[in-house]
Write a structure and sequence with these properties.
The protein folds into 2 domains: 105 residues, Ribosomal Protein L25, Chain P (Beta Barrel); 91 residues, Ribosomal protein L25, C-terminal domain (RNA Polymerase Alpha Subunit, Chain A, domain 2, Beta Complex), CATH 2.170.120.20. The chain is mainly β and 247 residues long. The strands form 3 sheets. The chain has a 6-stranded mixed barrel with strand order 3-5-4-8-7-6. A 5-stranded mixed beta sheet has the order 2-12-9-11-14, with no helix packed on it. 28% of the residues are buried. The radius of gyration is 22 Å and the shape is elongated. A hairpin with a 5-residue loop joins β7 and β8. InterPro entries: Ribosomal_bL25/Gln-tRNA_synth, Ribosomal_bL25_b-dom, Ribosomal_bL25_C, Ribosomal_L25_dom, Ribosomal_uL5_bac-type. One of its GO terms (biological process) is translation. GO terms for molecular function: 5S rRNA binding; structural constituent of ribosome.
């Protein structure tokens, strides 16, 4: 078995909701992913690659993953079957961690062979799927999409919360209810945010944060039909053993 990873409120006080501004290159500071081509696919070939410490992967043009978009010769030519080094991918995952891996772009180099200086293709990619073994957690396959400057990609951007240690509602015994763990945006490749940070430091019990409250780069487009959907709220915690009412 395997699986794919991939303000109208009640007494709302000042709420600061913001997304971490992406650096000039989201992949800055991370290793360039090194890959080599594989001419054929299949379970036997993939098993052999994994036994040699490599992870089978595919690099696609965004046109090949968008429904209704005609496939062109250029998009087909940019589809590559490759393998990557397991050790390098594991090192990157330790630095980036899931789920931020699939909202972070990386430079990719496809070379003629392991240790070869002959560069076949290079560019920026966005991981969109990680196929793991459900029992062992071992990475089985990876899927990347080219994320060149000027292109736009649909990205599920993870939501993280800050300010919980000083949140008035939580100090009163309330509970932070996570309603959405990610938000989907249509992002220019050069402005993909690794995460959206929501500041809950001013929320009291009953307060909510909505999708429309999130401030992101103006080039990002929220892919939601209802911007009035809440992202989180502070709910009161029921007493487990309430005191009996006095007669």
């Amino acid at each position: 078995m395997a699986r794919w990873w991939r303000s109208a409120t009640n007494n709302l006080r000042t709420v600061v909701v913001w997304s971490q501004p992406p650096p000039p290159s989201s992949s800055a500071g991370y290793h360039t992913i090194q890959a080599i081509p594989r001419e054929i696919s299949g379970s036997r070939v993939s098993s052999k690659d994994r036994a040699q410490g490599r992870i089978p992967a595919v690099v696609l043009s965004q046109h090949l993953i968008q429904k209704g978009t005609p496939n062109t010769s250029q998009s087909m030519s940019r589809k590559h079957l490759v393998t990557t080094e397991r050790k390098q991918i594991q090192a990157i995952l330790k630095s980036v961690q899931l789920p931020f891996f699939c909202s972070t772009t990386f430079p990719l180099q496809i070379r003629a062979g392991s240790g070869s200086s002959h560069l076949l293709e290079c560019g920026t990619v966005l991981p969109i799927k990680i196929h793991r073994d459900e029992e062992s957690g071992k990475i089985l396959n990876l899927v990347f999409v080219w994320a060149e400057e000027g292109s736009e990609l649909k990205v599920d951007v993870p939501v993280v919360f800050k300010g919980e240690d000083v949140c008035p509602g939580l100090k009163k015994g309330g509970h932070l209810n996570w309603i959405r763990t990610s938000l989907k945006y249509l992002c220019p490749a050069e402005h993909i945010p690794p995460k959206i940070e929501v500041d809950v430091s001013n929320l009291d019990i009953g307060d909510r944060v909505f999708m429309r409250d999130v401030e992101v780069h103006p080039s990002l487009k929220l892919l939601s039909k209802n911007e009035n959907m809440p992202i989180c709220n502070i709910v009161a915690t029921k007493l487990e053993n309430p005191e009996p009412a006095s007669l």
